[in-house]
Amino acid sequence: MLTRAGDTVKFAVIVFPGSNCDEDAYHAATAVLGQKAEYVWHKDTDLKGADVVVLPGGFAHGDYLRTGAMARFSPIMREVRTFAERGGPVLGICNGFQVLLEAGLLPGAMLRNRGLKFRCEHVHIRVEQTDTPFTLACRGGQVLRMPIAHGEGNYFAEPDVIARLEANRQVIFRYTTAEGELRDDANPNGSVSAIAGICNDTRNVVGLMPHPERACESPLGSADGLLIFESVVQSLKAGALVAGA
Amino acid sequence: MIDPQVLERHQLKPDEYDRILQFLGREPNLTELGLFSVMWSEHCSYKSSRVHLKTLPTEGPQVLQGPGENAGAVDIGDGLAAVFKIESHNHPSFIEPYQGAATGVGGIIRDIFTMGARPIALLNSLRFGALDMPGTPRLLEGVVAGIAGYGNSMGIPTVGGEITFDPAYAGNPLVNVFCLGVAKASDIIKGVASGVGNAVYYVGAKTGRDGIHGATMASAEFDERSAEKRPAVQVGDPFMEKLLLEACLEVMKTDALIGIQDMGAAGLTCSTSEMGSRGGAGIEIDISLVPQRESGMTPYEIMLSESQERMLLVVKPGREAEVERIFEKWDLHAVSIGRVTADGMLRVRERGQVVAEVPTGALTDQAPVYRRPMTPPDYLADAQRLDLDALERPRALDAGRTLSSPATHGLFALLGSPTIASKRWAYRQYDHMVRTNTINLPGLGAGVVRLKGTDRALAMSLDGNGRYCYLDPYRGAMLAVAESARNVACTGARPLGATNCLNFGNPERPEIMWQLAKAVEGLGAACRALGVPITGGNVSLYNETDGAAIYPTPVIGVVGVLDHADRVVGSRFRAPGDVIVLLGEGSGELGGSEYLKLVYDLVRGAPPALDLDRERALQELVIALVGERLIRSASDCSEGGLAVTVGECSFGTGGIGAELSVEPVNVARNPHLNVAATLFGESASRIVVSVAGDAVTAVLKQAAAAGVPTRVIGRTGGDRLRIATGGDIVIDVSIEEAERVWSTAIERYFVKKVA
User: The whole model's pTM is what?
Assistant: First the structure.
């Protein structure tokens, strides 16, 4: 656990058998950010003292049934839930977001993309709220460029759920144009209200479809994703500062 | 019981049967006959192509593994090896596009990780009938979705490739898939069985009746019992393969394996006999121990099943429990099904009783080899003749489109041709960024992935041109190698090795055999001259429907290394105000060109000439220029010629235009055709580069020293593509309009359906 602001933050990267962005998240946390990270196997029952948990992208259990549908039964998910309930920061990326939805840690569900095809490309998302551990380094309304890569990223929830998300400011990212405009052709998958990412009502669990870990180095086409990881590092260090004071 | 009908159903010739009798010294039983029939099939034995393939250059100081293993490997420095190979899945993809293509990807990925390498990139080369022919969009959609479905689930980025449309492939689409992996050079593992008594393990999916081919396998008994249960094409399970990949790589780290091989074509038969034969050993298995998906499977069916996602391993003595434990972690069960023996026999038992017993060498190294008759095809002499002066004004020009000039018409026709147009519709369905190594996004030129933990990157490209090979297989094949290596060189990478996929018609026809032999000759000549030995590949024959063969289509994959990943250049212009330089020079060759095909509906003439020494000098020049950071972009000039290449360099840049002045060529009496030849001729060995103003002198000096004819042809900037030749402005179009045509040509075939 982080006790002093000078400590490095420790990321737990959860590995399901079909995870395939686990190494990318690990690389972003360690090689790019200079923090510590550890892979945690889905059958494990211990988060190894991590300060932040990342559920990476991929196809957790093949996902032939429904994306993320079986992952919630993995033993490690009980630990993730406890960690989240204690206020620990949890980030679900792409399939990780889908797993959080299936596990009930975030509300809503994913449908197939509106065009019925897998889509991999850079998109723009607007930061709607900065008071989460994963967005506090962003400016409100800031537009980030990040890749998406999914076939089922069409976020859906019943109107009352959406209304509650909006009222509680739980919509964290929306798909927009490069200028930050909401436009239908800037929404790559048909998500309701152009939702690209949300948080839970205690704001410490965030899920998003775009891949910040793929946008941490400029040779890859964008380094905007760094802000997401830097946010959580800052957030934890600030927390440690308060706790240590 | 083995009568002529049975032999015919197994596609074995009478003299081949005599050979079997000699090897066994007795009549084979039906199971044994099945083993011979699959192992002696063209696909497994290369019996028609082998004598020709033997002439290919396969050696070089960089080659760590040449042909004969699951994949080839080259040394890329830092103690690392690039392991790569190409394979075809043409026929299955025509029958069932999604699963056919998906299992093709699955198969080539297994070939790579079987060598102990972590797969890090995929490419594909696809050929279909014309996109406006009925059925083509459905095939394209299925194949692309199948490749995406498998590759994306595996988390291996698809970083490039090519898609070509031509009526010649309407009845026989080509689906060639390529995979590249990286391993420690010292840790490469081979498909070999040795050490008498060592355990032979089976791991992966259960064996079913899928993939047991009607053509090579049926017996009367077999048909009666199970014909309806037998799907023609295997079904892929990428999740199972992902488990196998991770588990196998983990097992390989332990040093507990003697050898490993995937069960691809000919399944258990091929993996057992090849592993035994390579190790000079025998293998004995009991098929009642093989995990089975269906009940009542016969030894024949189990040995010939091509169920996907299965591996065969030989484990060092005393290490069995360790290996089993790793597979258990991944919820896989490794089952010991037999032992390595000393007698060189493949012995198959069923509950202890021997049901087949055949020397492993008889199935593999000693398979028949044919030197089939060859003759040049009748069409050739006429097809190679091209008289530009006899061409009439293209009708499309008068068909009411209000375009300013024949040149503009030609440019838009080419940009809108699905073969040249943007393939974004396809590649955005492929996860091309996973693993966060892709530093040259797909779309144009070679795919480039960096190697974390080193300064290096690998570049790779697949290229082929069936039309050129139809007109001259020798030169066409050379051009394919040259283009592939040139694409790699344009990124700044040094080409190191190549893999080839030879797609041809029926080799029993002498003219097809001639095409194959000439193409292999051309491949060999170009690979030798350009320093890219062939490290492996695949041959796909009998690509014919109703007696009509595809164009002879060798597809070449070249792999190269960039010592400094951060110096990589892309093919697009970077900034306005840069100087555009043409390395190499054209002579307006229109033979076999996309322009002639599109505008005149002609497939005629000789493909462009190729001087391999000049090609090599050009490639070395561009590699040096990138290495010294003297150029900002580099793009190979090929299909569609110079005008299309420069247009493509402008696309995707947010509208950076270009203004050019190019030397006219004089190849015809008709001035329109001279302009067309200048703009759209496909002369080889040319690269368009953009250079910052202060580096131009250095670039020209180096080019002169390298003996590469080089000329400043224009400047980037503005929002139009404007080309002058011989004092006249012949093209003046907005980049935005040109890009719209180029970027929507394929999409529009699919948008209509949804709307």
Answer: 0.95
